[in-house]
Amino acid sequence: MKPTSGIFQYLMPNSDYKTLFEDAPVAYLAVNTKGDIDHVNQAALNMFGYDHKEEMEELPVMNLYADGKKSGDKARRIFTQYLLGRTQAKMETQMLRKNGTIFWASLHVNIIKDHQGKISASRVAVIDITDRKKTEEKYRKLFEESIGLLCTHDVAGHVLSVNRATCQALEYDAEELQGRCIGDFLSDDTRDFFNQYLQEVLVRQRSEGVMKMKSRTGKILYWKYSNISHEENGQLIVIGTAIDITELIEREKELKKAKQQAEDSVRIKDVFLSNMSHEIRTPLNSILGFADLISQTRLDKKQYEYASIIRDSTENLITIVNDILDFSKIESGQIEFQEDAINPGELIHSVITMLSNKALMHGNKVVEKKSRNLPKIVFGDRVRLTQILINLLNNAIKFTDNGTIEVGAKLLQKKSGEGIVTIQFQVKDSGIGIPEDKLQTIFERFAQIDNQHSRKYEGVGLGLSIVQRLIELQDGAIRVKSQVGEGSVFEFELPYKIDGRSTSSKTKPGHLAWPDIDVPDLKGKRILLVDDNRMNRKLVVAYLADTGAELDVAINGKVAVSMVKDNDYDVILMDMQMPEMDGYEATRVIRGKLKRQTPIIAMTAHALSGEREKCIAAGMNEYLSKPFRRDELLMMLGVILQDKAASNGKSKTTLEIKMSALEENTLGNDEVLNELITIFREDTPGELQRLKEAVQKSDYETIRQVAHSLKSSYDMLGAKAAYGLLREMEVWASDKEPIPGIKANLNELLKKHVQVMNDLDNISGK
């Protein structure tokens, strides 16, 4: 060992310091201002693999760096920067042992000054950090090679490190990203979001969400991130992890676009079907009407035959149009079922009566077969049950000549306590029958028994398919038994609600769809006909020619409003689709601006779902779908005028309740009527309160449920305006339409409810 010199004296001024230096577990080097090693301790010899101090002392410290001069120059630059105002410095570098092996070391340098304050030496502590570096390298590789997006940044959002996946996604090199602000790579429309993000990650020490990024080439990227912050060497660092959800977002956009296109397609189809229905039904109305009128004039046998062919062909065409429309509604899921009061026995009688002439033309006898235990009143969709029975009876008549057809019903089962009954209906004929190999496909769309039959008996093969779907959509079932040459039996079951008041009894023959009324006395009644179609006007004029009614004609809604303003009419027959002002707007003006309560019957060739409700909601009293027959028009006028007379007889304030509907639904039974009114008074206020609360909370599902329930209650009373408002609310809630529109309907409904309650007071004499 060389003798202690000046430098060593400054490093170790006494024996205690010398002992500490020599015996320290940390490797120490004493380096002079030339960069040569003056002294080392035993720990340094052990670390670098030398046996004697003389081997290391006087070596340039540069010789210990693995990359020699490169690290030495780097060390000098770092030290110079630190030494400008400090007496110690630190760096990490790779160092070289005597045997040539390389290890990572952390160098901690303290500057030693002489008594004149000049730098005379430096004491370097060398710490082996190879294990730490290996661990760091392992995590660096994980960080770098991770397929996830990884990044660290400081509190200002400046990038500290990024992995390869992030660089590739943004199309930048790591060096280009480091030091730049993350906000520079956000999409232009989300820059404001970045400040909120920084605030959140600083305050909450974490942040999660989606960032909309922009690559070098302008490609928009969506990253779902989850970032946390932590302190490292006194500095707050944010570690960010993210996954690229761009493909998912784009797929969602495509799905939304496809959904919108599908909805647009359905809407376009609905418009097409509506227009097609209107355009076809308008001329059919004239053809069928005038064929009926011709048949009632003096004709010879050949002329009557021709008129009958025109009428029957028109009815077949109407059936086809109706089947296509119903099939479309079923396929698109737009069909809805109502809850009406039904007398099953009377409905069967009504259907048989309706088709009796057609059956006679085929030489058939139609027999009613109804069991004694059949309920008097059940609740379900009256229109759809009628449609099913008409379709099945039509088929039976079509495929049977000079035979017998039975139409019957019986109570199949009653679920005690649940208020549900199952009724089985049957249509049996003695016709041509169905081959066994066709029984499995008879309910399929466009199915025919065979081509010869389709040519002979007409039809497009949709009827039974529609019947099956209508039954299944009401939780029912249908089946068929048949044998060629012997006939067919169609049986179906449907569940219906029952309120416990109904009792088994023989049903009286009659007509459920229409009240039992004679042809109305229209003498002296003033009727306004509003229709832009000349043939339609001519037909209605002909229908009413011998009734004694005084008929005025308006060619559009604008003219009608003017005529109503200057005249008092008993009834208005209003077409819906007209130029200048249509029937809906004209009705709103008559009800609103003119404040007239004249009964208005809608006449429309539109036959799509919701059309009747739309007319009722606009303020009309009843609805006739074109084409309609003379007897249908006369019956409708009779109902309307009967209601008007009943209203006037009861009280001038009875404006909301339709008396004929109320009497029909209670079968004229005062006990049932009073019980119905009592139930309505007790239950409705609570339901209205539920509806108000649901509207206030924008609770669409509750709005839909309550509106659906309430509309049946008002419909039972014949309160059509209230029914129409609730029907709209139900549809709007299902479609999540804006709440203000629903609220407006609610406010109008509450007004109507007050009027309904007044009407009930008048009816019950309270």
Radius of gyration using CA atoms only? 46 Å
Please bin the fraction of helical residues: 40-55%
- Whole-Å distance between the termini? 127 Å
Structural class: alpha+beta
- Number of discrete domains: 5
Instruction: Tell me, briefly, the overall form.
Output: elongated
Q: In CATH, what is the class of the largest domain?
A: Alpha Beta
Relevant CATH superfamily of the largest domain: Histidine kinase-like ATPase, C-terminal domain
How is the CATH topology of the largest domain named? Heat Shock Protein 90
CATH architectural designation of the largest domain: 2-Layer Sandwich
User: What percent strand?
Assistant: 15-25%
Low-confidence stretches: 1-6, 450-460, 500-518, 649-654
Tally of individual helices: 26
Major beta sheet summary? 5 strands, antiparallel
Q: Would you count the extended β strands for me?
A: 22
Mean pLDDT: 79
How are the strands of the largest sheet arranged? Answer: 2-1-5-4-3
What does this entry show, briefly?
The protein is an alpha+beta fold and 766 residues long. The model is unreliable at 1-6, 450-460, 500-518 and 649-654 (pLDDT under 50).
Features:
766 residues; alpha+beta; Beta-Lactamase; Heat Shock Protein 90; 5-stranded antiparallel β-sheet; 26 helices; 48% helix; disordered N terminus
What does this structure look like?
The chain is an alpha+beta fold. The protein has five domains: 6-129, Beta-Lactamase, CATH 3.30.450; 146-244, PAS domain (Beta-Lactamase, 2-Layer Sandwich), CATH 3.30.450; 337-442 and 471-497, Histidine kinase-like ATPase, C-terminal domain (Heat Shock Protein 90, 2-Layer Sandwich); 526-639, Rossmann fold (3-Layer(aba) Sandwich); 665-764, Up-down Bundle (Four Helix Bundle (Hemerythrin (Met), subunit A)), CATH 1.20.120.160. Helix content is 48%, strand content 21%. It is built from 26 helices and 22 strands. The strands form five sheets. Strands 2-1-5-4-3 form a five-stranded antiparallel sheet, with helices on both faces. A five-stranded antiparallel sheet has the order 7-6-10-9-8. A five-stranded mixed sheet has the order 12-14-15-17-16. β21 (600-604), α20 (611-618) and β22 form a beta-alpha-beta unit. α18 packs parallel to α19. It is elongated and about 145 Å long. Residues 1-6, 450-460, 500-518 and 649-654 have low confidence and may be disordered.
